[in-house]
Amino acid sequence: MAGIDLPCKHLNFKTLKFIITVTALFFLFVSHSFSQEIFPPDPIKKLVRATKIDGNIKIDGQLNEPEWLLAVPIKDFIEQDPIQGIPAKKKTSVRLLYNKTYLYMGVICYDTVGKNNYRLLNLQRDFSASNADFFAIAIDGYNDERNCVMFGMNPYGAQRDLLSFDDNYYDPDWDGLWTVRTQRTDTAWIAEVAIPWKTLRYKNIADSLQTWGLSFGRTARGSNEISGWPAFPRAFGGLRMPYAGKLVDIQAPKPSTNIRLQPYVLDANNATIQDGKTLSSNNVFKAGGDVKWAINPNTLLDLTFNTDFAQADIDRVVNNTNRFSVFYPEKRQFFLENAGLFTVGMDPLSNGQSDYSARIQPFFSRAIGLDANGSPLTIDGGARLVYRSDKMNIGGLFIRQEGNAITNSTNFFVGRYSQNLGQQNRIGALLSVKDGDAGSLTGSRNFTGTVDGFFRFNQGMSESFMISTTNDSKSHTGYAAASQLYYNTNTLVAWLNESIVTEKYDPQMGFVARGNTIVTDPGFLYQERGNWLPKFVRTFSPGFSFTTYHNATTQKLTDRYININPVTFQFQNGGLLSWYVIVAKQNLDDAFSLLNVPISKGTYSYTRHKITLNSDPSTRFSIALTGDLGQFYNGAYNSLNTTLSYAPSPYFFISPSIEYGRLTNVGTNMVSKDVTLYTLEGRIALNPRVQLSGLFQKTNVTNTIGYNARFSWEFQPLSYFYVVFNNNSISQDNSLTRVIKTTDRQVITKISYLKQF
Question: For residue 64, how many other CB atoms are within 10 A of its CB?
Fold first, then answer.
């Protein structure tokens, strides 16, 4: 076979033990050597106060009410990047007010780039904060220095919010009910914010003065400066709450009835067309909705009826060039909220250094609502109950799913418990039950039980682990376990991942990229900022990882990937240049198909190169190039992915992408062919609340063409009017001379209305 064979050809468990031991000693060394650059949290916290007022503030971005003059401005932001610890060059001022209904925030982000030159690509909610001018507040309402809620915004008033737990698990798709309006001038951009008390979670101690954790963060994208209040190490963001300041003497109202109703009505026209002839067409009217009841500050009940996800983003097409299953993230809103509580598992991926993953996730919500072929199924309803405190977290999820001709009606249950230990440690358990025939004696059942833990030994070093088992109605029992030792400082990122999945481990409500395998994955990434670097380079980051897969039954080596990253330059403007060398070896016991090319069993050794060059992604025009080239099994595969982004203003954004690859003499039949994937993404906005977005995708691997268009109008906070158009076509050979084109087309109109009591 073509390629390079290495001396570690007969890697065994004695060698693995040696690797693990050396890596552990390496961790001890680097923990001592680099710990000094991560300064500890200041035991004397910075204190601020919010000013209580009687009236209401008009949220218009003006800050012209006299009440704002009563608040003491919070200044003295400290730079995190590029130079940790110095006063921020871009000055920021924050004022806090509150009344019986809202916590108000007035922000002035001083800058001289000009009112039309603030950086932002588009106005979508939950935009990329790293590529925009951005300001955020993090609030730790329980003052436990572990968890927080973040509210962020940009100069054009687009919102970004999330929940953070121990700065380790996140719910980035949580959407809080709050309001922001902004103004832009030639000397600053200004944000005015109103956060209802009902959106926040805090202790139920009315008529008493409370103390909360509080931090601010800002990105001035023109100069690529990141700053915050108070000071944070560069390795962490403003969500590491032990570093936060304190908002003292806040007299929050006693939590009252807090119920959110969000009903919807929907009309959908569905059609299937084959060779220009309509095979079927129907019109569906549907109604349902969600109820969110904050029973108390610690307990939240979510109910859903006739659940609909018509407005959810569609999946991106991926030309998969490895043998592992593609992991598509959850995008449905009901399952996204509080997803962090139920997220248990490991993703031993070499910190982005390779495309070879061994994800183990005992519960993954995308297993709900899809049949055996991946087609959507109706969700009759469900409930989720979540209890959070500074001591423990408890969650339960129940979903009832309808069946169809190939999939039985199904009940899903997930239970979760986690206990906080010490300052930032946690242990927990998760149980999931899938009843594949809604209680029938002949139905298919699957049980998954998992124990997990997280320990932060110091601010730079942490350990995560999980142990999981599954059992089904045929009494098949399987096991999985994983561990991740992780070290993160300003200068060094290092990790040691270990995982095992036995042959019969089958979490039918979860996701496993690859079964019957043992994975070992040590590696590091060094981040150098020496004076010897050119001024336009911010960081030089070489790295290395060594990933091996063994068959869990036979202990035979099946895969080995040596990932060498000799060059990664991050430029001062946010651009990137990187070069990876991947030396691969695969021992295939069975034939398989890749990119529709059959690959014979056998041993393959080959070397590949991956080169990435990105310009500043925050500018009005940017380009990203990724070349992936070299040997590939018994032949070669060279590809180039080119992505352009053009945003003359945040109100208009378009991004075409072309991935072109060439297979040469690959596989059993020595196939040579082109592999293409075309993508076009666009967005037009009147403001952050009225937007039209679209996505076009075409690939010759599956001969599919799909496009999606969505108009959304947020006519009041979290109340929407949608019009969605989906069109997906596939061309299939029916004979030697004929190709049949089948198209599924859908037009949806939906209105959802949120009312809070």
Answer: 10
Please give the pLDDT value at position 252. Answer: 87
Q: How far apart are the first and last CA of the chain?
A: 69
Question: Can you give the pLDDT at residue 13?
Answer: 47
Whole-angstrom CA distances from 476 to 174, 415, 445 are: 37, 22, 11
The gap from C-alpha 95 to its chain's centroid, in whole angstroms, comes to 31
Both tokens of 142, joined, read: 């329980």
pLDDT of residue 355: 55
pLDDT for the residue numbered 35:
44
The burial class, CB within 10 Å (0-12 / 13-18 / 19+), for 724 is buried
Does 536 score more than 90 pLDDT? yes
Three-state DSSP state, 341:
helix
Tokens for 749, please give them.
């109109």
Per the DSSP assignment, residues forming a β-bridge with 512 are: 360
Taking the CA atoms of residue 455, residue 458, residue 461 and residue 464 in that order, the dihedral angle to the nearest 10 degrees is 0
- In whole angstroms, what is the distance from residue 437 CA to residue 409 CA? 5
pLDDT at 305 over 80: yes
Measured CA to CA, the distance from residue 702 to residue 680 in angstroms comes to: 18
The secondary structure of 129-142 as a DSSP string is GGGS-EEEEEEETT
CA distance 559 to 324: 12
pLDDT, tens only, 131-147: 899 999 999 998 989 88
Question: In which band, very low, low, confident or very high, does the pLDDT at 371 lie, cut at 50, 70 and 90?
Answer: confident
Is the predicted pLDDT of residue 311 greater than 70, yes or no?
A: yes
Question: Residue 59: what are its φ and ψ, rounded to 5°?
Answer: -90, 100
CB hemisphere CA count around 353 (13 angstroms): 31
The 10s digit of each residue's pLDDT in 710-734 is: 999 999 988 999 999 999 988 877 6
Query: What dihedral do alpha carbons 730, 731, 732, 736 form, nearest 10°?
Result: 180
Query: Secondary structure of 6-55 in the HEC alphabet?
Result: CHHHHCCHHHHHHHHHHHHHHHHHHHHHHHHHCCCCCCCCCEEECEECCC
Between the alpha carbon of residue 504 and those of residues 442, 444, 475, 552, the distances in Å are: 21, 16, 10, 11
Beta-strand relationship, 477-488 and 461-472? antiparallel
How crowded is residue 50: how many other Cβ atoms within 10 Å of its Cβ? 22
User: Is pLDDT of 165 > 70?
Assistant: yes
Tell me the one-letter amino acid at 147.
N
Within a 10 A sphere around the Cβ of 172, how many other Cβ atoms? Answer: 14
Task: Tell me which H or E stretch contains 284.
Answer: strand 277-296
Question: Strands 511-512 and 360-361, how do they pair?
Answer: antiparallel
Q: How do the residues of the chain divide into helix, strand and coil, expressed in percent and rounded to 5?
A: 5, 55, 40
CA dist 586 and 129 (Å) reads: 39
Q: Kind and range of the H or E element at 342?
A: helix 339-342
Give 429-441 pLDDT, tens digit per residue.
999 999 876 444 4
* Greater pLDDT, 31 or 78: 78
Q: What is the pLDDT of residue 440?
A: 44
Burial label, 640 (beta-carbon count in 10 A; 0-12, 13-18, 19+) = middle
pLDDT, residue 374, reads 66
| The residue type at 263 | P
Which tokens is 319 given? 């030309």
Distance CA 105, CA 191 (A): 8
Task: Provide the mean pLDDT of the chain.
Answer: 87
